[in-house]
């Protein structure tokens, strides 16, 4: 024993003491530690750390938005210790904190930026808090049913009059605090108003007409509105826009409206757009598809140094895109983010007589790539972008020139080799209908499971392999079937059947998935409706090579009647030490003991969502998984189990783990139950928007829209 002790002492003496590092290095290390841990724990370890943990570089900005372990007492102590040193405080999505927690924010007298989106804040509490924050210039809040602007004090309104940036999420028809913000330069509006109340009454956007005050937009530079589905949201946003149509702000440089479905243009909105065409030069633009389709609007709008364009779901042709937006192929190096999701004709010269499945015009894509050479975010999903047989003009080959790309979304049919589709007859697996009907027993090719054999199988000439090899710094990748739709849409019952995949996509499978493993810095991956997945062997490559992967979403891979990739998925999960979010959507998924045992290797996992028609789960395995994975705070499962089984498991999880995990959110419910939409409305918006609902997220919003 004495020899061991002396050996340890010698090793200690030869080692490097952390406290011997310079203050600059230590401050950099400490910047990765959550502020609550720094102030409440680390600074109590020694005198040097006590001083460093209170350095202005660490206390100036406090981020609590994903600190799922923080509770009311920790926030209270944090504000008491360093409240006066905090200039920026982000508590977005802290849904688990009681509303009384907000009272402690009043200690932060020097706050300049405050984000309370997703927090429970009443009108009176908001008034009391804002009355003490005279330096506040940036604010994000929710407006819930019961909000009453008449309860805001004069001191509160004085603070709001100095706010230049406002982000407001509306759950009820209201102007919120917008009329009080007379110095607004940036306004972000998120409309999440349901058409029916919990009691079943129809809501009306006209409830807000009686409010005496109107918004002040004279200094506005950025206007952004995102609408959830529903006609009430459309009614309310029109009232916000009515003031803009009277007088367009001269300094407006970003105008963005994201609206699903049909959002018709009116006389007022037409006047607004005409005024914008005459008086402003834009840097960012997004409009509802009905406002662009068939109009000459883009021809008249003027742009300065645009950094973001979104023409999602528009019928804009490639000819119009090049002529009216990219000015005939002129230099657009300023553009960093482009969303063409659902633009089925955007890579074709015209759309009048073209079918959505026809080949693209590679010259249009080439003009786009050459002009917008600094693109960092590009979304081409939800369309059939089929390349022709001409050599060197494949979509993947042209996109490989965009060396600065950080995020990319593509349809499955766009990554297939044209020659492979022409020369190779359809395999037996491709002939199986992608339905939930009777299973057909077929012979399938046996794919190797080890990486060495996979490497030998690589088709070096594959255009997708080459694309992945050229985009080494890509952080987000989405490969989504052009006809894919999630079984769990927003505000609607679950979808029973899905559309079959595109014929061109039939050959996309394991080798293409393995190609993704070249992306060393990949952080987020979405794969949906890849029909030729036979074993899922490519997933193992990703698990081993993509060690930075934090978010994984897999949906409808391979045959629909069987989860053919389960074994490979379990092998993959054993290597995903950094994985935080996992979403799986697959019919007949069996969430049993083996699956959860493999998932338990993901020590960083925080959120899990499984959507499976006719899927099964093993309650004991779920409970064991929750006990082993201490970081998990969200467990959503929408399966084929009975309501009784689901409720009992949900109650057991909450009862066993809620006390130690204040942010725990558990929803286990039958996917096809008629009350699913009522259950969904109670899910915190952070989880619903980021993981539970499936959608393409690449270039969904302008980069750095909010801090």
Automatic annotation (TrEMBL):
One of its GO terms (cellular component) is SCF ubiquitin ligase complex. This is FXL18 protein. Residues 15-62 form the F-box domain. InterPro entries: F-box-like_dom_sf, F-box_dom, FBXL18_F-box, FBXL18_LRR, LRR_dom_sf. It comes from Anhinga rufa (African darter). The gene is Fbxl18. GO terms for biological process: SCF-dependent proteasomal ubiquitin-dependent protein catabolic process. Pfam families: F-box-like, LRR_FBXL18. It comes from the Eukaryota. PROSITE patterns: FBOX.
């Amino acid at each position: 024993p004495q020899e061991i002790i002396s050996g340890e002492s010698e090793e200690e003496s030869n080692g490097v003491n952390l406290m011997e590092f310079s203050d600059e290095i230590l401050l950099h290390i400490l910047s990765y530690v959550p502020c609550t841990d720094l102030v409440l724990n680390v600074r109590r370890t020694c005198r040097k750390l006590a001083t460093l943990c209170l350095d202005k570089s660490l206390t100036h900005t406090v981020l609590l938005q994903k600190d799922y372990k923080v509770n009311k007492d920790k926030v209270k102590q944090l504000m008491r210790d360093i409240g006066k040193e905090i200039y920026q405080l982000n508590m977005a999505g802290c849904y688990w904190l009681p509303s009384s927690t907000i009272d402690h924010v009043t200690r932060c007298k020097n706050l300049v930026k405050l984000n309370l989106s997703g927090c429970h804040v009443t009108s009176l509490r908001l008034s009391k808090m804002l009355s003490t924050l005279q330096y506040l210039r940036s604010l994000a809040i929710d407006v819930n049913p019961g909000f009453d602007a008449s309860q805001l004090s004069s001191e509160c309104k004085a603070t709001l009059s100095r706010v230049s940036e406002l982000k407001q999420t509306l759950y009820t028809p209201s102007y919120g605090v917008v009329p009080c913000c007379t110095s607004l330069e940036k306004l972000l509006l998120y409309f999440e108003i349901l058409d029916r109340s919990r009691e079943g009454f129809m809501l009306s956007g006209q409830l807000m007409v009686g409010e005496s005050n109107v918004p002040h937009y004279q200094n506005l530079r950025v206007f952004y509105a995102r609408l959830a589905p529903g006609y009430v949201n459309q009614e309310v946003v029109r009232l916000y826009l009515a003031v803009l149509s009277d007088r367009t702000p001269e300094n407006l440089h970003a105008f963005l409206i994201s609206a699903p479905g049909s959002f018709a243009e009116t006389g007022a909105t037409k006047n607004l757009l005409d005024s914008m065409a005459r008086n402003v030069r834009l840097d960012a633009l997004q409009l509802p598809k009905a406002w662009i389709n068939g109009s000459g609007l883009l021809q008249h709008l003027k742009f300065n140094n645009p950094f973001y364009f979104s023409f999602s779901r528009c019928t804009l042709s490639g000819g119009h895109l090049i002529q009216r937006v990219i000015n005939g192929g002129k230099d657009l190096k300023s553009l960093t983010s482009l969303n063409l999701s659902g633009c089925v004709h955007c890579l074709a010269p015209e759309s009048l007589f073209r079918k959505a499945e026809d080949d693209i015009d590679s010259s249009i894509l080439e003009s786009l790539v050459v002009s917008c050479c600094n693109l960092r975010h590009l979304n081409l999903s939800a369309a059939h972008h089929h390349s022709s047989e001409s050599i060197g003009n494949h979509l993947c080959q042209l996109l490989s020139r965009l060396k600065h790309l950080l995020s990319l979304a593509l349809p499955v049919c766009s990554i297939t080799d044209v020659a492979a589709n022409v020369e190779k007859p359809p395999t037996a697996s491709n002939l199986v209908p992608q339905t939930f009907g009777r299973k057909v027993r077929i012979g399938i090719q046996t794919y190797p499971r080890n990486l060495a054999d996979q490497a030998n199988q690589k088709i070096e000439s594959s255009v997708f392999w080459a694309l992945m090899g050229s985009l080494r710094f890509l952080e987000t990748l989405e490969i989504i079937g052009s006809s894919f739709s999630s079984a769990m849409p927003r505000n609607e019952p679950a979808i029973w059947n899905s559309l079959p995949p595109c014929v061109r996509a039939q050959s996309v499978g394991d080798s293409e998935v393995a190609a993704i493993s070249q992306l060393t810095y990949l952080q987020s991956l979405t794969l949906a409706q890849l029909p030729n997945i036979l074993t899922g062997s490519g997933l193992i490559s990703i698990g081993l090579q993509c060690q930075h992967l934090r978010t994984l979403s897999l949906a409808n891979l391979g045959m629909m009647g069987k989860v053919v990739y389960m074994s490979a998925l379990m092998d993959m999960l054993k290597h995903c030490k950094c994985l935080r979010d996992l979403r799986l959507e697959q019919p007949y998924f069996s969430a049993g003991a083996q699956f959860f045992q493999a998932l338990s290797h993901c020590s960083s996992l925080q959120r899990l969502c499984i959507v499976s028609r006719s899927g099964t789960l093993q309650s004991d395995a779920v409970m064991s998984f929750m006990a082993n994975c201490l970081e998990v705070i969200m467990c959503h499962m929408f399966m084929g189990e009975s309501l009784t089984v689901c409720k009992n498991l949900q109650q057991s999880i909450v009862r066993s783990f809620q006390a130690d995990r204040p942010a725990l959110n558990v929803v286990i419910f039958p996917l096809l139950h008629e009350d699913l939409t009522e259950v969904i409305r109670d899910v915190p918006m952070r989880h619903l928007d980021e993981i539970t609902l499936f959608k393409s997220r690449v270039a969904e919003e302008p980069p750095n829209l909010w801090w």
